[in-house]
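Practice set, problem 2.
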Amino acid sequence: NVLGIERIINKQKATFYIVTLAVSFFANYYMSYMICIFSVLYFLAYFFSHYSIKEVLPTKPIYEDENGEIYDRKIDNVLYSRFVESGLLFALGSFVAVGLAAVALVPTYFCLKACSATSGTFPSDYQFYNNIFDFLANHLSSLEPTIRSSGETVLPNVYCGVITVMLVPLYIFCDKIKARERAANIILLAVFFIGFNLNYANYVIHAFHFPNDLPFRFSFIYSFLLLTIAYKALVNIRSFSTKALLGSGVATVIFAVLVQKLGMKNATEETIYLSIAFAVVYTVVLGLMKKKNIAQSAVSLLLMCCVFAEVAVCDTNHFVISQQKPNFVNGYTEFRELKEKLDTVEGTDKYRMELTNINTLMDASWFNYNGVSVFSSMAYEKSANLQHNLGLNSNYINSYIYAPQTPVYNAMMSLKYIVNNDNSLMNDQLYTKIAENDKFVAYKNNYYLPLAYCVSEEVEKWITTGSNPFEIQNDYWTRATDVGDVFDKIPAASSKTENIRDDGDLVSENFTYHKEISDESGTIILKYEIPESQNVYLYADCTTAESIDVYGTNGLSKTQDPDDPYILDCGYFEKGEIMTVEVTIPANKDSGYADIYAVGLNMNNFEAGYNKLSASAMDITEFTDTHIKGTVKVGATELIYTSINYDEGWEITVDGEKVEPVALGDALIGIDAAPGTHTVEMTYKPKGLMIGAIVSAGTLVIFIAALVVLHIVKKKRYAKAYGAEIKESAAVEATGEPTGIDALMAQDLGKNATVEDAEKLLDVPDEYEQNKQDPTETLNRADEILNTQKLNLKEILSQISDDSEDEE
């Protein structure tokens, strides 16, 4: 991409830039957004590093009046301005790249509108995250990398090696590199530092959204800039004096000592001493590179070994492995064997299932089954909201994780099998054992409902907000079935506390607690006497707690993470049995709030509702991940409920006529249909896919056509120029007098002037030798410039020198 920008400015060629940017969009649209911001900044920085705003292209025409005087047209200074033409070509190339990638970008745009990644509010007040010294110190070695914004030390990961820290100051003072180029690159680094540190800029660079717990995602661009700057200093290492190299090493050591003395968020003693050690090593190696009597290949190899040594010594000890590989892969073979048995029983793999205890946030992907649990930045935000309110472990943004749930939820979400992998208590009335092996036991949901079935139109009034997930599930069930409450509340029979004031309201479902003695831990113990023989469920939301332990006389023993509240299936209790909930409050929390709900399943009302819903289930005849077809009988005042996430990409027809879906609970698809038996067909095409495909195809055709036309035009121009050159050569031979650049050299330097004589006009006499410039190419290029611009010999040769540097 960077090389493409340079080709646009230097040669007015955009093909490479277009292709690389389009590939970038296909590879990662999020990073590409940041790359686009960088591209604009780099275009400006590179142009003004190498050219003046008044620079005109060599193709600018020249005019002669009737007296033979050469004159300019002012409009040509705009039409043939290098800045204007390069800028227009850069903008056009960017649009073409977007057009080529539209088939991916347009559907992604519509998808992003439904997920949390685009929800955000521009900050009202400015905020600086870190001081400059902490940021600079984070360039040293052996630092703890930042993973999450909720960590103790949150700094951008910009470490690129101690040698980079040493080379950047050398770059700043390198006379071999133009001052304006050095200034432009340092300004670019400063811009990205502001992006790291100022909340306004950080918000914009992250696509107008603060990242969910993974900060500074554009640090790769800063690191790229840092490495390119270091490289430019390294290739000019012989231009620095021994004193300058030694000074850079000493300065790095002094900086490390200052970090140790003043303190820094992320630096340890190891950071300081390893940084000093490698600064000494690199100073020696750079000194060797400067010596002409030592083989450069050997020193380069030595430098590479030192860089690898730094990575091995300073980085590998920060590779944190919190889980061993067996914790992830153990059980894979056993699960797949079990899944194949279930597929054989079903005659298909098109059914939903879940584990009672997941190993990863993406077990469905790892084990390859159709589940409920999701963790994705592209997850539907409304679905995450609903799943959280239904009692799943969810961050309310982009993830929701299944744990053994109520039969109401399992029926709503069309879960057919539950695979027990943690000895959860399974009620024989609700589940039937189907298959097992050494690690897993598969249970069939006795009250399974298919992907779609008919419910009362009252479901459109379903209330999905509130702190009690049982009320939300109950509201759905009663509205869908027109039967009574499916959950019976179980109040706490008694409470007991340690270092917690008991004002008598701890037995209520919602209460506030206060410590008796600050800075000491406390405990709240609630006991529930089960009034009827029934399956019991608990939801405890107390995020200020240290732990929540639940145990009962039925053999129940569970510990729940207070940070992630979710419904807990406590199993079947006989009438009169006791369930105990113990909430431990840490010493650093003197007060807090808790919602603790316990309910029992009203089996009579649940079965009555289930029988009604199962009688109106859709008979699915065709099923793929993008196409569903089936028949269903819809009663009066009913609609079709599906457990499919609402997405505008679904096209739905009822008896061949297109209908618009209804958003049930603001997150699931519902279908309106008149009473009677209907054929329902659902086809998924990502919204915007067709538009994007048309734009991409059209752009590709135009792009290829433009390349062909340009090739033909260039070929004709070359043929014309070649013919003119032959005629000019013949004229020279006939007259014996020099023409073009030869005439100009003869005029300024004498008849027998050579290229070497012309080079003496330049500020850097060995410029052509360094760039291996062919004398013939030099003269040809000079002729081109002479034919289009009124310049003297020195100006022409200087321009050739600049062009050579650009190509390097």
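Problem 2, part (b): a different protein.
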Amino acid sequence: MQLPAKWKRLFVLTLLAAITSASIVTYTIAAETKKPGQAEAAKTDWEQGAKQENHAANVRESETGTKAGTPQQTKDAQEGSTTGARTAKGANVQTAKNSYRSLFPDDDSFRLASENANLGLYVDPKTGHFLVKDKRSGQAWRSFPDAYGWNDKDNTNTWKKHMQSPVFIKYVEFNVRKDQIKETNVLDQKAAIERFELTDSGFRLTFNMPDIGFAIPIEVSLKDDYVETKIIEEGFKDGKSSEEMAEYEARAKKKDKNARIAALRLYPFLGAHTSDREDGYLLIPDGPGTLIQFRKDRPPNNNFYFEAVYGEDYAFSNNNPSLSIRQPVRMPVFGIKAGDQALLAVIHDGAEYANVLAAPSKSMNQYNWATAEFTYRQRFFQPTDKRKQNGFQTFNKDRAQGDRSIRYYFLNGGSPDYVGMAARYRQVLMEEDGLKRVTPDGDSIRLPVYLLGADSKKGFLWDSYEALTTTSEAEEIVNELTATGVKKMSITYAGWQKGGISDFGGHFPVDKGIGGNDGMRQFIEYAHVKGHDVTLEASSYTFNNTGRDGFRSSRDGLQDLGSVVIKYGRRNETATTLVSPRFMQKVLEKDFDKFKQLGTDGLTLGGGLGSLLNSDFNERHKATREEAKGIQQQLLGQAVQTLGPVRAESANAYAWKYVDALDGVPIENSFDLFVDGTVPFMQIALHGLIPYSSGFANTADNYATYLLKNMEYGSIPSFMLTYAASQDLIGTRSLYNYYSTHYKDWSEEIAKQYSRFNEALGDVQDRMIVGHRSLAAGVYETTYDNGKRIVVNYNESPYYGDGYEVKAQDFAVVHGGRS
């Protein structure tokens, strides 16, 4: 029978409505929540429901009222919705064509789990979601997206489920495609909430997914001004056992897919906001800190930020086309600002296995959101021939072990912005890592000066040795700089080792080509008489291209899971063998006494130790990434105990508590098109705790801008110098990085800038940065806790402030409105 056209249309619409209703999830709690400490806790089933929303006519408003044990629900007639980061309003507010209420729990479904003087933690036992009410402001954050601006059509059904789910899962099916990642969530897996219980500080539960074989225990705890979310190792189930797989295969008459977890995100949409109000931003740890503004006019795109904390693990770099070209992440942090509220997230347990993910609105869905993704398995290249050139991509079968946690610090009053986030991170560094205010050595800053001793020149048959600064010539450089007014220097001698700066391995004795051990001792004594410190650069212990120190690449090199020895492009991009962390530890521990005998004031570590963090699957020296971090920290501690002060180049946050100064601190981001500017988050957190400098001034792309940026960020400029003329570096491996180093070309300029920076920053060496803001386009103000303000003008015309002037491309120190 032929149906009329209008009946056909009616049939299709009815079918679509049925499909839509079937995709909506409801929750049924099977038992009452037990008291803390009871063995059997409540069990919650996530079931496919019949709850249906008519999206074309779904117009609801929030209810007014207060219920015992829940945050207050208030009506917002003007906006018709709630905002989780502003008020403790009900999350059940609805606008036209809006399915928000059908997807996320109402406020009256939450019950009090724990509270203190500042915060209250509420949990919905049926979904595992939670709400944090800030008693200081009456505002709240939710573990799912904020209601304001919800637009149903801007979120696909897949993303709606991801946003509903407290846990997002990446997994690999080893019996299907060993090289392919699949994505799911606890809703799609019809997870059951088991062993739910209240604890002294929050709640604990397990998401059990028997069909796929996963069980993920989590815990949420309330502290003074933060909430910690944790994935617990104990009880973690990563796929079916062999017995369960055999039982399934016997029952289903087909092979089990053997699914294993590759990565997890826990409460990934905590603090997520739309861009409707354009009143916030995401903070990401790119460079010193980078903002992604909430913008309505952002075009739809696939751009987002995803970077490994502490940089790539090069044990998984072989034949890996997806290695990042962004700057490595040095801090395990991210942040969200929304209106007059902000949170700082610090990745705590398992930071070395974490990635920071930040997505602006319209990149994946309509929300701006940021989270941490914890890696449990990584893709690697498995060779299938002896030359290790042919093979296939797969994932490691053994997963990374241990708890994974994030601490969310809720900022209140004062500075709910990146300045406040950085100040809270500074507090974490002081209270948990033991960093203390520096004790200034008078009112003069110490200028970081690197001296390049020697390098090798490429030859047709073999390389030749090129001395660039002998120890006696180094004395001349120090004498001249001191005479021109540079009162204090922290001198790092680089390229002192056998073969110069491009040779790695077998450092001692100091190469005779620049003066040997005796010459180095004499130089250090001379520098001390002039009032300067001297450290030796020891960053090259991470690499070996000489075979010295008893190193054999096949035996002692860092290896991946396919037994491939890993090489790393450094300085002039020539690939150099990475040393196994345990082999490096053995060699460096043996050399500590040799450094001490030279009378050095410590070591400068970097280029590897403290900045490159790699797993090692070499069976002779095997180390997980967590163990490699521990080795690095142990060596840093030994260096401090044996030799005294340690400088570090481009160091990760886990190294900061051991160092007395940081070099190579970034002042720019990685120039992604979707970001909206760099901020001195790292510098605000560190100033007054650790003196820091950025890259070398004399190799900067734009020297004038470099100096202004350093002044704005409270950073001391540094210089790389040689006694040899700059043209003498032609043909050396160093030319790639150091192309203007002759000290005679720079001595007057160094003295001039030392005087200017000393005058501006000399009396704030131990002071905290408490303010940073833009006064106008291209004009920025940095404020210290002693009241000093420094205004930097990047423009080509003067800036006139309240009673002061800042000349074009210059800075001014402002006191009480006057420069």
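Answer key, part (b): The first strand starts at residue 25 and ends at 29. Residues 1-97 have pLDDT under 50 and may be disordered.
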